[in-house]
């Protein structure tokens, strides 16, 4: 059996990438011998970390020891910021171990990692090896100093071609992400990149006849997730909407739930509660106003056969097919969202198509087949 070494640098808070890593590890163990090397972002605010972020010798030694002891056929990397550092690419290349990286966000091109500026879509930095526009606008943690440090890390390694030379295969979650990176200053070759989405376990299909008359939002309560647009749409819509989530705009949502009798706020809830709500709702509302990566909430909706109503912003509009497994509205436009909710005529075909989308693209079985193809290519 081939050996796969999974590398990941955890964020300060547990997030989506951590969950994806855990699920992928379980999946890969069905076909391969799998080991992990996980780094934690501790002491990253110390003065010494100014240089460790560029090349961390401690991390490189840990990785080198792991390669020598485990002898992996392939390395699968998720996040390398900051403790791991770009040393991972240099060490993997030194030992001639092919490295594939799943690109969960846009950090290699954009200090904010989201392709946003002031919570709005932005692509200023994608043509800049050193993202000077990001420094100007303090895009990382609202600090020019912190953005400059991150830009230094990115710039030095871009100019040295550390990423292009050290990565055997870029795995993008969507065609949009692949297009962005290929049109960027990195100019990634087509044979060095592939689209492979994440997967989720099956939530279980819920039939059209079991649906109730309410729309559902699940997610972070923030501006970039479209919460202000959703709340404003309620002024001219009498459709029932339920919201599950937490975030900086929580108080705004609570205020709106008192103002509008057709809005119900549940706060943060566990997976079982979310699953049941998805299986009963008329459709998922996804009003996000940034490009996103591959929203797991949409995959969960498709798993249950739930259509998705989303803004027609790039990337998201490619995941949800207008008139097939969901509906589009003009992103950021509360009037158009309100009109879409009021006029939504979702027949049974929408629900069946949503389920078909999940079964064809986002199951564990489909994902494992894609992994096998990539690993075979890298080790042939």
From TrEMBL:
Organism superkingdom: Bacteria
Record-level Gene Ontology MF annotations: glycosyltransferase activity
InterPro entries on file: Glyco_trans_1, Glycosyltransferase_grp1
Residue ranges of domain Glycosyl transferase family in the record: 209-355
UniProt keyword Cytoplasm present: no
Keywords: Transferase
One Pfam family named in its UniProt record: Glycos_transf_1
Residue spans crossing the bilayer: none
Protein name listed in UniProt: Glycosyl transferase
Source organism per UniProt: Persicobacter diffluens
């Amino acid at each position: 059996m081939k050996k796969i070494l999974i590398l990941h640098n955890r964020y300060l808070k547990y997030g989506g990438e951590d969950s994806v890593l855990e699920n992928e590890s379980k999946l890969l163990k069905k076909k391969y011998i799998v080991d992990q090397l996980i780094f934690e972002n501790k002491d990253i605010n110390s003065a010494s970390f100014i240089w460790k972020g560029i090349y961390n010798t401690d991390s490189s030694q840990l990785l080198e020891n792991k390669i020598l002891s485990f002898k992996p056929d392939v390395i699968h990397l998720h996040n390398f910021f900051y403790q791991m550092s770009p040393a991972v690419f240099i060490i993997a290349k030194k030992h001639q171990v092919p490295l594939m990286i799943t690109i969960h966000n846009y950090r290699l091109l954009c200090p904010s990692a989201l392709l946003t500026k002031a919570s709005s879509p932005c692509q200023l930095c994608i043509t800049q090896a050193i993202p000077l526009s990001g420094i100007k606008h303090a895009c990382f943690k609202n600090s020019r100093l912190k953005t400059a440090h991150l830009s230094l890390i990115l710039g030095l390694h871009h100019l040295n071609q550390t990423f292009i030379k050290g990565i055997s295969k870029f795995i993008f979650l969507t065609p949009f992400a692949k297009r962005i990176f290929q049109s960027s200053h990195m100019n990634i070759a087509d044979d060095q990149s592939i689209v492979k989405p994440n997967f989720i376990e099956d939530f279980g299909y819920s039939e059209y006849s079991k649906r109730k008359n309410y729309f559902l939002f699940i997610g972070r309560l923030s501006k970039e997730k479209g919460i202000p647009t959703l709340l404003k749409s309620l002024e001219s819509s009498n459709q029932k909407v339920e919201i599950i989530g937490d975030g900086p705009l929580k108080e705004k949502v609570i205020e709106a739930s008192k103002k509008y009798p057709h809005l119900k706020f549940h706060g943060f809830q566990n997976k079982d509660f979310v699953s049941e709500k998805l299986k009963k709702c008329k459709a998922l509302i996804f009003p996000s106003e940034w490009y996103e990566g591959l929203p797991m909430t949409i995959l969960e909706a498709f798993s249950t056969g739930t259509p998705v109503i989303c803004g027609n912003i790039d990337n998201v509009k490619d995941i949800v097919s207008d008139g097939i497994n969901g509906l589009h509205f003009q992103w950021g436009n509360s009037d158009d969202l309100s009109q879409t909710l009021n006029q939504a005529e979702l027949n049974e075909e929408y629900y069946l198509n949503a389920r078909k989308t999940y079964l064809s693209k986002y199951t564990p079985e489909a994902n494992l087949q894609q992994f096998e193809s990539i690993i075979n290519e890298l080790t042939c």
